[in-house]
């Protein structure tokens, strides 16, 4: 894991929230809600004329518009899933760290978004100490990448 990957954590979480809001808005648009104002009268004497706002579903809405919204929504959901996967990977990495000091540094800096000065103050140490310690840790403990197993075909072209 690198510092640049860790720095994405807060932005990934914000992006997930933004994408959720966009998907929700698109779902509302897809339903085709319409509103109108109508005239009505009071149910009891004196029958005073008033205006009321009514809301309904547009059954004559364009199918093409609905299909476009659905396709756009699927693209947003795909982007959201990519962001969720990246956020999960970073969170799992943080949880897997055995050194509590390093976990605290990462938590304060990358999960809570504090500056290095505030991280150092929270840990009661020199301003440069947490960043140097984290840099050293990341160099000494590179993330182990899972290797993909290659499938060997028995029906190879080598005869």
Primary descriptors:
159 residues; mainly alpha; 2 domains; 59% helix; elongated; disordered C terminus
What can you tell me about this protein's structure?
Helices cover 59% and strands 11% of the residues. The protein contains 5 helices and 2 strands. It has helices at residues 3-31, 63-96, 100-111, 116-122, 129-140; strands at residues 33-41, 49-57. The protein folds into 2 domains: 1-30 and 59-96; 98-141. The protein has 159 residues and is mainly alpha-helical.
Largest sheet: 2 strands, antiparallel
The helix/strand class is mainly alpha
The structural domain count equals 2
The overall strand count is 2
As a percent range, the share of strand residues is 5-15%
Radius of gyration: 28 Å
Topology:
Blueprint (H helix, E strand, L loop, with lengths): L2 H29 L1 E9 L7 E9 L5 H34 L3 H12 L4 H7 L6 H12 L19
Antiparallel strand pairs: 1-2
Helix pairs in contact: 1-2, 1-3
């Amino acid at each position: 894991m690198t510092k640049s990957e860790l720095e994405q954590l807060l932005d990934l979480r914000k992006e997930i929230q933004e994408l959720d809001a966009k998907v929700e808005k698109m779902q509302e648009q897809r339903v085709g809600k319409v509103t109108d104002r109508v005239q009505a009268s009071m149910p009891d004497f004196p029958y005073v004329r008033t205006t009321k706002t009514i809301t309904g579903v547009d059954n004559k809405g364009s199918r093409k518009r609905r299909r476009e919204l659905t396709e756009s929504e699927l693209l947003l959901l795909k982007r959201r899933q990519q962001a969720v996967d990246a956020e999960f990977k970073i969170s799992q990495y943080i949880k897997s760290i055995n050194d509590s000091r390093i976990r605290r540094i990462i938590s304060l800096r990358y999960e809570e978004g504090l500056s290095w000065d505030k991280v150092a103050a929270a840990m009661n140490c020199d301003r440069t100490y947490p960043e140097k310690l984290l840099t050293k840790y990341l160099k000494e403990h590179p993330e182990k990448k899972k290797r993909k197993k290659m499938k060997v075909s028995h029906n190879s072209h080598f005869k």
